[in-house]
Design a protein that fits this description.
- The longest helix has 10 residues.
- The chain has one domain: 2,3-Dihydroxybiphenyl 1,2-Dioxygenase, domain 1, CATH 3.10.180.10.
- By secondary structure, the chain is an alpha+beta fold.
- The chain has three helices and nine strands, in the order E-H-E-E-E-E-H-E-H-E-E-E.
- A hairpin with a 5-residue loop joins strand 7 and strand 8.
- Strands 1, 2, 3, 4, 5, 6, 7, 8 and 9 form a nine-stranded mixed sheet that branches.
Length: 131
């Protein structure tokens, strides 16, 4: 597995992105992911990629994170060549699937899944593209 991005729960993508842009990140367009009920924008630079995640409404899953801890990094996303096998292997080590595999608009409909482990926290798996 390879680190793809760090996910950050935000109340306002533009406001948070403004800070990161002063740190040398470049903001991509903001998209709405109707499956996850969030707005997503990526910031990139030579050091890596950040994903800003903002709720669409009060039913968005990111609302709970914002209520509990406010604006903060809340997941690491790892890209994997063997998506389903990786999920099975992580489950054997104590991870629990909290969001079953689903196509993600932000990743050209590649599959994602979220898993949680009490000693690690929340991770996202991203299906590696074939290119």
């Amino acid at each position: 597995m390879e680190l793809h991005h760090i996910g950050i729960a935000v109340t306002n993508i533009e406001a948070t992105a403004k800070f990161y842009c002063t740190m040398g990140y470049v903001l991509t367009e903001t998209i709405e992911d109707k499956i996850q009920n969030v707005y997503i924008a990526f910031l990139e630079n030579e050091r890596g990629r950040l994903e800003l995640v903002q709720s669409v409404d009060k039913t968005s899953p990111v609302c709970n994170i914002l209520k509990k801890i406010g604006v903060s990094a809340y997941h690491f996303c790892y890209e994997t060549n063997d998506f389903y096998s990786t999920i099975i292997e992580l489950e054997k080590t104590g991870f629990k699937v909290v969001v079953a595999p689903v196509n993600a608009i932000a990743f050209n409909n590649r599959k994602i899944s979220f898993l949680y482990h009490a000693d690690v926290g929340l991770i996202e798996l991203l299906e590696k593209c074939d290119t």
